[in-house]
Amino acid sequence: MADIQIPDALLVQDYVAGNEDALATLIKRHESKIYGFIYSKVSDRDVANDIFQDTFIKVIKTLKSNSYNEEGKFLPWVMRISHNLVIDFFRKNKKMPMYRETEEFSVFSIMTDDSLTIENQLIADQVELDIQKLIQELPEDQKEVLIMRMYKDMSFKEISEITGVSINTSLGRMRYALMNLRKVIDKHQIILTN
Questions:
Q1: pLDDT tens for residues 125-167?
Q2: Which regions of the chain does DSSP assign to beta strands (E)?
């Protein structure tokens, strides 16, 4: 209980003067409050421990470099450091989410290369050609609506204005076009995949 009587400012001065025990006393005194704050933000014991350690690494570096100016506010200063490190953690986490390896989950299962290999590109091109051939077999009014919607990214309102039919008729033609495409695909057992 004797260490509680010594003010933080004096312990900081003692540590800067070379007394390592003074820092241990400061850490012990404020550990639960600082760790509790960090844990309340990240909700992960391992991450909270890491941030807690990083907090005191920054504290030690600052104190050793004599760039800490004592204003009797050691705890608020340390809390601000930990708060900034929590924010840094979340910034990094957004860019690169943290995954933990478990028996049921392997990090390698979510690592994918989205770039198309030459083989995948050839397959994708062939699928596109097959779809275009199928579209050509549709009745003219269905083909027209499908091309406007899928390839020209037009709204059904725009399609109805251009074709001179109601929006409901445009929707109906699109529906029939998709149904007819499915029938042809099923009938010929065509596999459209890449």
A1: 777 787 888 888 889 999 899 888 888 888 889 998 999 999 8
A2: none
